[in-house]
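Exercise 3.2. Students should predict the tertiary structure of the chain below and write it as structure tokens, then compare their answer with the key that follows.

Predict this chain's 3D structure.
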Amino acid sequence: MPEDATDPTGEFDAASIKKEYAERLPAYERLQEEGRYILHAALHAANIRLDSLSSRVKTLDSLLGKAKRKQLSKPLEDIRDIVGFRIVCLFLSDISRISLIVRQEFTVLSEDNKIEGSEVSTFGYMSLHFTVTLKSEYVGPRYKGITKIPIEIQVRTVAMNSWATISHHLEYKTENDVPSSLKRDFYALSGLFYLADVHFEMFFNASRESRQRAESLASGNYFDLDQEVNLDSLALYLRFKFPDRKRAESGAISAFITELSRAGYGKGSLRRLD
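Answer key:
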């Protein structure tokens, strides 16, 4: 874009925006670093496992492009996602937990929930968007010049993010962009990703219940050896059998089950191992 580019009103001054952006860039980068630290620490403390936590500062070209499209004469004031974060979680139930953390750790200016009440056909565009700033208690030289800058935080599941990524590369930004001849396949694919999200959640809950059942079969000095050999039962059995030893990682137990299966001990109950 040429530096003398203007919008139809003649108010768009790319040269001055470029100069101001360069002056503010160090503050944006400090805010990005601070926001990432806050989110990472809070999510880790809540024991929420993530697929990814990514961040970016909007590039000058992207900023100018958005300013021109929206005819913004003061984009550095009007655009509220210059500093942005995307949290990609594993399960649908994680979204509400992450939302609570965002509300606790930041001052929320706005919240846009594109998940609840949305049609399945819009699955690829589902996400939860927050616009926030740092809390007022963040004071001192470290936070000078960054506490009032808005931050956008997006929250999605892996399935939502995967479908959104694929849709982006197909260049269909909205449902209305999809040709009529392709909409049936589009809806079918969207539905498959939605079902994957739902069933991942169901499987996660069922797995948790399986572990709870396994634990209920062990009490005091008694352990039910008639359970089948699987990751949950074997991990609990090893803890019961060798309480003073360091707990094995799940990957090591899984490898052990594979070796037991090759030796003919992996099928049937734990009684064969005792």
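Discussion points: The chain has a mean pLDDT of 84. Strands lie at 50-57, 83-89, 107-113, 128-133, 151-157, 218-219, 222-223.
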